[in-house]
């Protein structure tokens, strides 16, 4: 379970995917498979969540890693590069962006 704290020493990555409603479920299936069978088993992985908007035109992915290098190593692996090519075919675009938690409320 992701834990969002401003003082956490984790790398946060938020990735947004744009797709059509016709490919949303296929993309969601591909992302779930990637997390269940590969990403979650990589060194430094902490937690992740997938969110789908009600129009099924966007998926937001929130993930946490022990550090930036662990996330980048996963991205550069042969398996993830292959998976990302398949994921790219299912959507208009996707962009992972690294963030620091600035503040939390509630």
TrEMBL record:
<dbReference type="GO" id="GO:0004497">
    <property type="term" value="F:monooxygenase activity"/>
</dbReference>
<dbReference type="InterPro" id="IPR007138">
    <property type="entry name" value="ABM_dom"/>
</dbReference>
<feature type="domain" description="ABM">
    <location>
        <begin position="11"/>
        <end position="105"/>
    </location>
</feature>
<keyword id="KW-0503">Monooxygenase</keyword>
<protein>
    <submittedName>
        <fullName>Antibiotic biosynthesis monooxygenase</fullName>
    </submittedName>
</protein>
<keyword id="KW-0560">Oxidoreductase</keyword>
<dbReference type="InterPro" id="IPR011008">
    <property type="entry name" value="Dimeric_a/b-barrel"/>
</dbReference>
<dbReference type="Pfam" id="PF03992">
    <property type="entry name" value="ABM"/>
</dbReference>
């Amino acid at each position: 379970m992701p834990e969002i704290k401003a003082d956490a020493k984790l790398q946060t990555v938020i990735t947004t995917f744009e797709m059509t409603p016709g490919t949303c479920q296929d993309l969601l299936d591909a992302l779930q498979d990637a997390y269940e069978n590969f990403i979650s088993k990589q060194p430094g992985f902490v937690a992740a969540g997938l969110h789908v908007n009600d129009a099924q035109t966007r998926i937001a992915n929130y993930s946490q890693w022990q550090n930036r290098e662990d996330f980048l190593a996963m991205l550069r692996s042969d398996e993830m590069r292959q998976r990302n090519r398949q994921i790219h075919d299912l959507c208009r675009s996707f962009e992972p962006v690294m963030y620091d938690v600035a503040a939390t409320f509630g």
